[in-house]
Amino acid sequence: MPQDRLEYDIKEGVLAIVQRSGTSFYWAMRLLPPAKRDAMFAIYAFCREVDDIADGEEALETKRINLQIWRDEIDKLYDGTPNHLITRALAEPLRLYGLAKEDFVAVIDGMETDAIDKLQLQDMAELELYCDRVACAVGRLSNAVFGLAPEKSRQLAKSLGEALQLTNILRDIYEDAERDRIYLPKELLARHGVLDPGIPDPDINEILAHPGLVEVCIELAERARLDFQQAQAIIETCDKTAIRPAIVMMKIYRRLFILLE
């Protein structure tokens, strides 16, 4: 197959994954210059694929095997021998933008956390690490494509990524509970009297019904509010055209956050 035809097929395959996901950020990515657009589509497709594994109905061991396949594929990408459609699509963005391998690995690590049959984060440090893996790492990859300097990229990814993920957690408390996932840290729940820290396996329904849960959500919401403010301050110092997708994401999630309040 001619090289240009192969590259076209890879791009079309990635585009199909992005469009099939129904993401509200499609047009924000679509309006980027072609090379940056293709890079963002490939990053998004990777995130979509590993997220689908974590959220799937397969047994935990099967999920871990499938996530290990992606770890191996990321190794191949950085060795210059990618096999999968998505990692082949990531090869050129890697060359152009210096995407960090550890950020792809961090995303997979975050998906391994989500894949656990019964998830309960223990403390704020675990919550921060989870947010870093599933949201901030994606931000660092995106910011590399947008052309942000490393330190500004790190700062924006941390504040905006954490704000977005905390908003997701606050929005999805009951939906996550149905999947035996409690992202509200056990330490925080105990501090507000929602659970006894000495109980290793607290009852999810009791957590959801406890009046102290409101105070837990208020505390996390305050942290998210500060993260949004910090992200906005950083964005004011950036080329807004270059980081348009990040701005769109922040506006959408900030509206959602206000509705949750």
Can you characterise this structure?
It is built from 13 helices and two strands, in the order H-H-H-H-H-H-E-H-H-H-E-H-H-H-H. With 261 residues, it is mainly α. Helix 1 (3-21) crosses helix 5, helix 8 (150-171) packs antiparallel against helix 12 (213-235) and helix 8 (150-171) packs parallel to helix 13. The protein is globular and about 55 Å long.
Oligomer: single chain
Rg (C-alpha, Å): 19 Å
In sequence order, what are the helices and strands, one letter per element?
HHHHHHEHHHEHHHH
Can you list the strand order of the major beta sheet? 1-2
Q: Could you give a short account of the major beta sheet?
A: 2 strands, parallel
The fraction of residues in strands falls at under 5%
| CATH level-two architecture of the largest domain | Orthogonal Bundle
Which CATH class of the largest domain applies here? Mainly Alpha
How many helices? The count is 13
Low-confidence sequence ranges: none
What is the domain total for the residues? Answer: 2
What is the CATH homology-level superfamily of the largest domain?
Answer: Farnesyl Diphosphate Synthase
| Span between termini | 55 Å
Helical proportion? over 70%
Concise overview:
The chain has 261 residues and is mostly helical.
Indicate the topology.
Elements: H1 3-21, H2 26-30, H3 34-55, H4 60-79, H5 85-97, H6 101-115, E1 119-120, H7 124-146, H8 150-171, H9 173-178, E2 181-182, H10 186-191, H11 204-209, H12 213-235, H13 244-260
Parallel strand pairs: 1-2
Helix pairs in contact: 1-3, 1-5, 3-5, 3-6, 3-7, 4-5, 4-6, 6-7, 7-8, 8-12, 8-13, 12-13
